[in-house]
Design a protein that fits this description.
mainly alpha
């Protein structure tokens, strides 16, 4: 029985599979986003990718395989790339803000794929839709853990964590879904700063707002990379001697 997450390839060289699939998926995401999943053909994807139709069938069984891996790619990117941005960030408020900032940055890089995920997840087979939903849920749980830590530390007032996280996800995805309108008013840094002002700051306690203010100063209101507080840098230098 074929497992829902398995996509077979005639080619066995793992490096070549990754390279060729990436090339084909990039072309497919563009066409699926521009023209829709159902109207896009394998032949059109092949032309866009600069390969033959026959070559595509060496790496994918059918168009559903291509859509599935396209959606998995964007969701797994959220899951893989947000945690490294949180490394070394200890304060709960800063971890939450950094997670949202990282999420928006990834969405900015993968705008077409993010839009595709909204439009075309329903086109997948039911068993694969369940896998895609679980991928999204793992990133949601990461954000929920950040919210929970803020509440536990007394930096945020108690809230419905589950519902709040979906507001955060919708905000991050909106940078792709409504980019046609938002880009006229905001660059990415300004968008993140305004979103945190609307969706994080009003929920913070006094000491939570103090932590947010310190992060804003260090990042020029989310326009440059965050640096650890000076005390942390001194502590690391002391421990190195």
């Amino acid at each position: 029985m074929k497992l829902p997450g398995h996509v077979a390839s005639v080619v066995t060289d793992a490096r070549l599979v990754e390279e060729r699939r990436g090339q084909i998926l990039r072309a497919a995401v563009k066409l699926f986003s521009d023209n829709g999943y159902y109207t896009t053909t394998i032949s059109q994807i092949a032309r866009e990718a600069g390969v033959s139709t026959g070559l595509i069938y060496q790496y994918f069984g059918d168009k559903d395989d291509i859509l599935f891996l396209s959606l998995k790619l964007v969701l797994e990117t959220y899951e893989k790339e947000i945690p490294p941005r949180l490394e070394g960030v200890k304060h709960p408020v800063e971890r939450l803000c950094m997670a949202l900032w990282a999420y928006c940055t990834i969405v900015d890089r993968l705008r077409e794929a993010t839009v595709l995920a909204y439009r075309s997840t329903k086109s997948l087979r039911a068993d694969r839709r369940a896998l895609v939903k679980e991928d999204e849920s793992r990133t949601n749980r990461l954000l929920q853990a950040c919210v929970r830590a803020c509440i536990a530390g007394g930096y945020m007032h108690p809230v419905n964590e589950y519902l709040l996280v979906y507001q955060y996800v919708a905000f991050c995805h909106a940078w792709a879904l409504k980019h046609w309108a938002l880009r006229a008013r905001f660059n990415l840094g300004k968008y993140v700063a305004e979103g945190i002002g609307l969706l994080v700051e009003p929920l913070l306690t006094a000491k939570g707002r103090t932590a947010l203010a310190a992060m804003r100063r260090r990042t020029a209101d989310f326009t440059r990379e965050a640096k650890p507080p000076a005390r942390s840098r001194r502590a690391r230098r002391s421990s190195a001697h």
